[in-house]
Amino acid sequence: MPKVKRSRKPPPEGWELIEPTLEELDQKMREAETDPHEGMRKAEALWPIFRIHGQKSRYIFDLFYKRKAISRELYEYCLKEKIADANLIAKWKKTGYENLCCLRCIQTQDTNFHTNCICRVPKSKLEEGKIVECVNCGCRGCSG
């Protein structure tokens, strides 16, 4: 299978350290895209894709901001090549959004009452024993 096309500019130093993990996540993404989704709801078929996309972005975010294991040049290369989601990472840097699962959960125009997704409600404010599942991405609570 051909590799994903990247820009003609070669990747910066340190790419060989993160490439195996990114290739593994790309392989998981391809499997998630080709998995059969008969018997699932329309939105439910996309949940694995959202999870893997978030994993990839979280991996790059953690390497740069938490562990400081990659250079700014490599980080910006990953954002420019759309390996990681720059908008999602920007939200993770803000207070209260550290565990955000996807951007659709905070978009108010996608909901019936123009509020955040149910997974953004703290578990302490919900009824006890009630299982909450996001319609958009399948998250079970990313507010904390």
From TrEMBL:
Q: Where is the signal peptide?
A: none
Q: Where does the record place a coiled coil?
A: none
Keywords, alphabetical: Nucleus
Compartments in which it is found: Nucleus
Name the GO cellular-component terms: spliceosomal complex
GO BP field? mRNA splicing, via spliceosome
Mention any Pfam family matching this sequence.
BUD31
InterPro entries xref list: BUD31, BUD31/G10-rel_CS
Q: Hey, which family's this protein in?
A: Belongs to the BUD31 (G10) family.
What is the recorded name of this protein? Answer: Protein BUD31 homolog
Instruction: State the encoding gene.
Output: 20206551
